[in-house]
């Protein structure tokens, strides 16, 4: 009976850790401005001109999914071929920041879980998940010291 209580406590810690990591990424997304760099241009239907030329006064904002596809067709033919990424950018610029914050934080959490799954050779389960794995992965992009610590801690947990 004591084992079940300990296991339930560990599951709660894992769930709270995952919620905490999700909230961490959500707050980072919330604090980041939506139109960063050239993202503002993607709020409009692509006019078929180079990025270095300002948008014309007649540029129309994206207002539906079909306009995103038309815009990306023009973009593909005149500027670049990263169509899947730019479709997502235009979709989230059109839909707004709250949806982007939610989805981006969720995808970040899923990426952490994917790295955990891969580090355990595909044999990972929620029972094997330790908060230390998640913390090590979250620290990875925060700087060289954190990166080294995160990589070593993750490597030793996988042995």
Please give the radius of gyration in angstroms: 21 Å
Number of helices: 6
Q: Unreliable stretches, pLDDT < 50, 5 or more residues?
A: 144-159
**Helix and strand composition category:** mainly alpha
In total, how many beta strands?
0
> Helicity level, as a percent range?
55-70%
What is the N-to-C order of secondary-structure elements (H for helix, E for strand)? HHHHHH
Largest sheet: none
Give the topology, please:
Layout: H1 2-31, H2 65-78, H3 83-95, H4 97-119, H5 131-139, H6 144-157
Written overview of the protein:
With 159 residues, this protein is mainly alpha-helical. The chain folds into two domains: 1-25 and 97-159, no CATH class; 35-95, no CATH class. It has helices at 2-31, 65-78, 83-95, 97-119, 131-139, 144-157. Helix 2 packs antiparallel against helix 3. The longest helix has 30 residues, at 2-31.
Short description:
With 159 residues, the protein is an all-alpha fold.
What key phrases describe this protein's structure?
single chain; 159 residues; mainly alpha; 2 domains; 6 helices; elongated; disordered C terminus
């Amino acid at each position: 009976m004591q084992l079940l209580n300990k296991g339930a406590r560990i599951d709660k810690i894992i769930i709270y850790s995952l919620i905490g990591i999700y909230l961490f990424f959500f707050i980072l997304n919330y604090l980041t401005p939506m139109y960063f760099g050239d993202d503002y241009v993607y709020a409009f239907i692509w006019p078929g001109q180079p990025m270095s030329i300002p948008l014309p006064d007649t540029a129309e904002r994206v207002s539906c999914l079909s306009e995103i596809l038309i815009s990306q067709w023009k973009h593909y033919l005149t500027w670049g071929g990263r169509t899947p990424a730019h479709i997502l950018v235009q979709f989230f610029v059109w839909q707004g920041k709250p949806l982007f914050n939610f989805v981006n934080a969720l995808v970040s959490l899923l990426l952490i879980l994917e790295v955990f799954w891969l580090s355990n050779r595909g044999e990972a389960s929620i029972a094997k998940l330790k908060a230390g794995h998640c913390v090590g992965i979250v620290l990875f992009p925060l700087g060289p010291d954190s990166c080294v610590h995160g990589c070593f801690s993750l490597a030793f947990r996988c042995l």
